[in-house]
Amino acid sequence: MRVERLQLRDFRSYEDAAVTLGPGLTVIHGPNGAGKTNLLEALYFGCTARSCRTTNERALVRFGAATARVVVDGRDGDGSHQLTVGFEPGEPKRLTADGAPVQRLLDAPHRPLICVFLPDRLELVKGPPGLRRAHLDQVVAALWPGRSATRRAYAQALAQRNALISRVRSGASGRAAVAAWDLELATHGVALRDDRAAATSAIAELFRQHAEALGLGGPATVSYRPRTHAATAVEFAAELSERLPLDLDRGFTGHGPHRDDLLLRSEGRELRAYGSQGQQRLALLSLLLAERDALSAARDRAPLVLLDDVMSELDGDRRRRLADELRSGGQAVVTTTDLDHVPGARDGAVARVAVTRGSVLCEAVAA
């Protein structure tokens, strides 16, 4: 679904606002503190019923208001569609898709896929492996929605095995009881590892291409590093059994996909440890663009790309390269304090939205 209009009431700094998006690139511009990021967050919230910025969702409701509401209108080959999210802190969210109540917007067939860049998402490159694992699992779920249950099944089996290890350490259970969970954990673990490896393979060449186009330097690579290379669940279960004494010493399972990592490299060096801030930023952008293209191919629809304050830290040449990449790949929304920081922003094919505190003006909307 291509998003055409965003409406929000009592969301963050906005009492009542509406934004019309273009079919390609939309640039939201205005001074610091005007509410540009709030619009991106509202768009993400309206498509997923989650915030991309905070886990404290009470902060989403405008100060002094009791509830917030976001409406996303769009269109695809089947016609017009609408997603709505009503939120009152302490109460279940009220979600509808085309007027019908739903439990999760993720299950709405016409919901747009989304790739998002926020400045603090650089932690995805330079932060701990857990962030990259979680992100890779989101890519798996987006590429193949039916496989999202594998990660949950693995997490549940891991929790059960860890609980049993605690019981063995306390003397409440015998070591032999752990073997029953080894095969259960291994079965889901091999499936999860293979899903992650497949997702990484789907974006690897695209990552290289985008990194080269953005001037990251190279060769740039993204690769998956699993903890186990066992060919079967039985082999993985045997590895777990071998490591049981170590797990009993530590008090938890130390081997398996919950210790895997996604490696981003340039010229053979890990960007997490050796990349500059600029290189890490370009690597993250390359990763998101690669995922956009992989999702477009797998799901036959291009994701909506949301980029917050991405141009301010790039030089003029890389701004131009990024703008070219965005205009060539479906719908994208970019925020900036200076319209001239986005090359081509004044072109007729680009939609422009001016923002002052609590007020929105759709200056130009591309047809």
Roughly what is the average pLDDT, rounded to an integer?
A: 94
Instruction: Tell me the overall shape.
Output: globular
Number of helices: 10
Helix content: 40-55%
Briefly, what is this?
Helix content is 40%, strand content 23%.
How would you describe this protein?
The protein is an alpha/beta fold and 367 residues long. It has helices at residues 36-48, 123-126, 129-143, 148-170, 179-214, 233-242, 244-250, 271-274, 277-299, 316-327, and strands at residues 2-11, 14-20, 25-29, 68-76, 79-87, 94-97, 100-101, 114-117, 220-225, 261-266, 269-270, 304-307, 332-336, 351-356, 359-364. The longest helix has 36 residues, at 179-214. Helix 10 links the parallel strand 12 and strand 13. It has 10 helices and 15 strands. Helix 3 (129-143) packs across helix 5 (179-214) and helix 5 packs across helix 9 (277-299). The relative contact order is 0.17.
Q: What topology does this entry show?
A:
Elements: E1 2-11, E2 14-20, E3 25-29, H1 36-48, E4 68-76, E5 79-87, E6 94-97, E7 100-101, E8 114-117, H2 123-126, H3 129-143, H4 148-170, H5 179-214, E9 220-225, H6 233-242, H7 244-250, E10 261-266, E11 269-270, H8 271-274, H9 277-299, E12 304-307, H10 316-327, E13 332-336, E14 351-356, E15 359-364
Parallel strand pairs: 3-13, 3-14, 8-12, 12-13
Antiparallel strand pairs: 1-2, 1-4, 4-5, 5-6, 6-7, 9-10, 10-11, 14-15
Helix pairs in contact: 3-5, 4-5, 5-6, 5-9
Provide the descriptors you would attach to this structure in a database record:
single chain; 367 residues; alpha/beta; 6-stranded antiparallel sheet; 6-stranded mixed sheet; 10 helices; 15 strands; 40% helix; globular
